[in-house]
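Internal ticket #5521
Category: modeling
Description: The requester needs a full-assembly model to guide mutagenesis choices. All entity lines are attached below as received. Residue total reported by intake: 503.
Assigned to: D.W.
Attached entities:
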Amino acid sequence: MKTTYLIIGPVIILVIWFILTLFNIVNPLVLPSPIKVFCNFGTLFTSGKILSDFSETIFRWTVGLLFGVVIGVPIGILMGYSNKIYALLEVLIDFLRSLPSITLYPLFILFFGLGNLPKILIVIYATSLYTAVNTIYGVKYARESRILVAKSLKASTSKIFSRIVFPGALPEIFAGIRISVTIGLIVTIGSEMILGARYGLGKRVLDASNTFSMSEMYALILIIGLLGYFANRVFVGVENKIIHWRGK
Amino acid sequence: MPQVSIKNVSKSFPRHDNKDVIDVLREFNLEIDKGEFVTFFGPNGCGKTTILNLVAGLLLPDKGIITINNKPPTDAKIGYVFQNFRESLFPWMRNIDNIAFPLEIRQVSKSERLNAVRNFIQKYDINLPLESYPYQLSGGQQQLIAILRALITNPDVLLMDEPFNGLDYVTKVNMWDNLIRLWMETKVTILFVSHDVEEALFLANRLIILTERPANIKKVLINTSFYPRNRKTLLEEKFLRLRSEALETFREELI
């Protein structure tokens, strides 16, 4: 039943798309037929044309995300744990997370050139920010009653942290990482479009658009969308396994 | 010599606006012997929980002295069962690890502490799924986990702050039986806060009725019914008389 509904939505869109192109309601230069797009989708993979773009994008995205998490979680823990550090960095963090990351692309070019480094660094920057913000709240609002239990047992501060506060903050930390997975892809694709690159899905979309290869552009959009969708699905699966106790 | 001694203890907290203080306890005195089951009954916010937190060593008195076995509370072994079991158990640990947590704090090795829990459960003939997680249990079972966690170290004093709130009546009455059985077998001293007069009287050998803030002892009722008590105890004339006396005292205090 649920799967049927899951499929119906996309199918309706496809049918509308098909009808629009079949009767030339929309200029085929702007919106090519879905059949052409899906053929292109296939050739992109079978010809191997897209594999380098695919792997480059995934490389920038995952390496950036990995470092972002490794940096963001400890910062979040420190800020969540110490009111002083929180007060010290609160304005800065709130300012930076209100600032769209794309605004900083020119700065990253200026400081780090045009290679892979600025692209990965900007992913690290954006994902560490979102991971840190969620971690802060997870740690800061750890359940007082659980800490009291440990205190009444005369647990040391480090024990309270490692066994109570940190596991208690995991749902928030994971929520932060989940947002970062999506943000990371957005920033990666954006940096490939704006900073330029030899390979990269973002670069490929831009090229397709500049050369009016519309069915290729739509196929690429589809690929990037599916990439983000499945990454999220996989992550949610892992998350539900690790924090099976969340919300219960 | 009493096991728990609270002598001339005063405690106040700053008000929310920080301009003034609220006197929660003023010159409070109480002595409790080893193995007693003492319940506290009184108006909401009168300072019952503060008394428990002071005995637990979680709070320090502004004035006065509290001792457990002649030592300060920070040197005593305390078991504390909180009101909200959902928020006091650790949902990321299996039930057995929850119960063993106080031993983990005491750096008992993993295999030793798991054995200790299994032996403990067996000794007191308790039937609980140990390998699953707290969220897979009923409310009563979860609170039983919290009680076992508090008892696993063989504490000097067991503090219980309205532990059976939020349980349905039948579960609650079963929990009374469980608790009395554990108390009789472990001989632990219990300080139990309740806002349910029936519960407070059914469990206690001594019921302490507190006044409004700053809390003081309004009246002490001794329940001489034999343990273990049962459903019939609740209907005995002696019990009903004590119950109406407690309620009468409580009503006077509120007027």
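Resolution: model delivered.
Comment from assignee: The mean pLDDT of chain B is 91.
Ticket closed.
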